[in-house]
Design brief:
With 85 residues, the chain is an alpha+beta fold. Helices cover 35% and strands 32% of the residues. The protein has helices at residues 35-38, 42-54, 72-84, and strands spanning 6-12, 15-23, 28-30, 61-68. Helix 2 (42-54) packs parallel to helix 3.
Length: 85
């Protein structure tokens, strides 16, 4: 479990993601935007949040993310990879 601060990197195709998890109440910041704003597709949001749902930690951490490169699906996969790490 995350105690104070955890950083992880995820990659998929051409997309690279740097994620920072801190204890909080489930706030998302992806390149300065909310999860729903950055990924309007419910499918992409479901893919991204799967590691949190499987570990019963959804809503327990604030997540700050920097995504670069690739397309929407690649970025969603890179973010999922970072969260799983």
């Amino acid at each position: 479990m995350v105690d104070a601060l955890t950083r992880a990197t995820g990659r998929r195709k051409e997309a690279v993601c740097g994620a920072r998890l801190t204890p909080g109440n489930g706030q998302w910041s992806i390149n300065g935007r909310t999860l729903e704003d950055y990924f309007p597709s419910v499918t992409h949001r479901r893919v991204i949040t799967e590691p949190l749902r499987l570990t019963n930690t959804e809503g327990r951490y604030d997540i700050a993310v920097k995504l670069t490169g690739g397309g929407v699906a690649g970025q969603a996969g890179a973010l999922r990879h970072a969260l799983a790490r």
